[in-house]
Specification:
The structure is a homodimer. Chain A has 8 helices and 13 strands. By secondary structure, chain A is α+β, with helices and mostly antiparallel strands. In chain A, the strands form 3 sheets. A 7-stranded mixed sheet of chain A has the order 8-10-7-11-9-12-13, sandwiched between helices. In chain A, helix 3 links the parallel strand 4 (80-91) and strand 5. In chain A, helix 1 runs parallel beside helix 3 (95-112), helix 2 packs parallel to helix 3 and helix 6 (225-233) crosses helix 7.
């Protein structure tokens, strides 16, 4: 299977300036920009957890998602993507067409973000589908953006909208790579994280790493239409705001930005097609709080997907 | 599960000079030596294919193997290991003790080869165990050792012995990292590959990449005692020589070495505890041939594990 698949793949792999030795040897060799550090992240997606192969009309979306969530992690570090390696554990039935579909889903995304396919390992087995992607990028002149740099007084900015990703958006992830690089190059950012497990949960991780607290403005949370739809369809599942806080898999960025810089950013709205919103502020007081429509401040319990 | 596991793991992860940002952020950041290139490889090991979890008295050996086979790929490139990321798909039953065993198996090996654990992704699911490791290394001043550099007239040298790894050695892989670095630094090597799928099959890959052929001396193949044992136990499975040629998972090195340099190497035997043997020569004539005890030359069909 692997031999046949690799022949199919070889015709579809673009060359890449960073790749000195591409797939085909025992390992790939790539060159970083001078004085850049290497940034690396990995995510393993499994059938029944991150997707349901049997229910998907188009398995290419799995390939897209597997690459996109890794690129989103590079975006959270404001790192420039360079290359990925991809390992597949394929069910024996239909292994080849599944592998091809996965790559057909991820190759266009890799091309769009100038990310080389540096190698991989393609296996068949008696288990369900699992796909592991390791992405690596390089830091820019401004270094990596960490989740630990938020300071009391900083504004909490987010890209895009939150909630209801399970209705489909979780498969069609649009990693905020270009946005992160653009903002990191042109504005002062103190910290960044991407929202994989839930807006409130990932924000709480930033608070822990940065040793500060936050107060959110309930009326300022950009709620995705899918969150409203979920709340309508299943009222017992929570309000649309609760979906926005806890659903996860939005793969938007949370940024800590000095307040004057945040004003400039919100005025500029420099991102093409992606709105920046301020949802609150970092505070000296630890913990996560929310101000509701009536101006009442209540503790907010961080919710989201715990692995 | 992941939260509890990460707390357990955090106490066991050594710091590493190359790691600027370790596990805990969206991605890790590591620094290469000045002017070094980054070398990357990945291997996914799955239950029922690369190991049998239910039959193993000591699942730590799976963790050891998963890291070792990746380090072996870095060795084949004569690259210095720096860091790995590790993704686990764990069966829900006993996920935590399995994860701990895997790490108990790989952490001592990582420490021995000064390899940082830069990050990972730990998941539970309804499927069997799968473990994906991606290893990063850096090239030395002499650059990477490729499989494509063998030249007609070069000697074919190998480390160690071959065959019968299924009797146990395939789990206790000893990656030839130090050996590859020592040889690459002190001798002229034209090409290298590690034997994962079979001595004859991996050699044939080197021939294809190097666009040459090879003639092997049947009497010079270092046959492991396990290969003799297998041939005795199951005569129908082939001779010990056939086991040496085709069993795979030996994780020894095949090296292409200019003939005068090979003489020096064989005289020096510079590797502590690992014997170097010449098993034949590269030839202009394409294809793989064997000279048997009686001096007859016959074509040798490359055999091994095809994925």
């Amino acid at each position: 299977m692997e031999t046949e698949f690799l022949a199919w793949l070889a015709e579809r792999l673009p060359s890449h300036p960073c790749l000195r030795i591409g797939p085909g040897d025992d390992a790939a060799v790539f060159r970083l920009a001078k004085s850049a550090d290497c940034v690396v992240t990995t995510d393993l997606l499994t059938d029944g957890v991150d997707f349901e192969l049997s229910k998907l009309a188009d398995p290419r979306r799995i390939g897209h998602k597997a690459l996109a969530v890794n690129l989103s992690d590079l975006a959270a570090m404001a790192a420039k993507p360079l290359a990925v390696v991809i390992s597949l554990a394929l069910p024996r039935a239909n292994a080849l067409p599944i592998a091809q579909s996965l790559y057909e889903g991820l190759l266009p995304l890799a091309a769009r973000f100038q990310t080389a396919i540096a190698g991989g390992d393609t296996n068949t087995w008696d288990g369900p589908l699992a796909i592991s992607v390791t992405a690596f990028g390089e830091t820019t002149d401004r270094g990596p953006l960490l989740r630990s740099g938020a300071q009391p007084g900083d504004a909490i900015l987010v890209t895009g909208q939150f909630g209801g990703s399970i209705l489909g958006r979780h498969l069609d992830v649009e990693p905020r790579v270009a946005e992160a690089l653009q903002l990191h190059a042109n504005y002062t950012l103190h910290a960044g994280i991407d929202v994989s497990d839930g807006l409130s949960l990932d924000l709480s991780r930033m608070l822990t790493a940065s040793n500060c607290g936050a107060t959110l403005d309930a009326t300022a949370i950009p709620i995705a239409s899918a969150a409203h739809e979920l709340a309508r369809q299943k009222p017992a599942s929570g309000t649309s705001l609760e979906h926005a806080f806890g659903d996860g898999e939005d793969f938007e960025l949370i940024l800590a930005v000095p307040s004057a810089e945040a004003e400039r950013l919100l005025r500029d709205q420099p991102l093409a097609g992606v709105k920046l919103s301020q949802i609150g502020n970092f505070t000296t007081e630890p913990g996560l709080r929310m101000i509701d429509e009536q101006g009442r401040v209540t503790p907010l319990v961080a919710k989201g997907y715990l692995h």
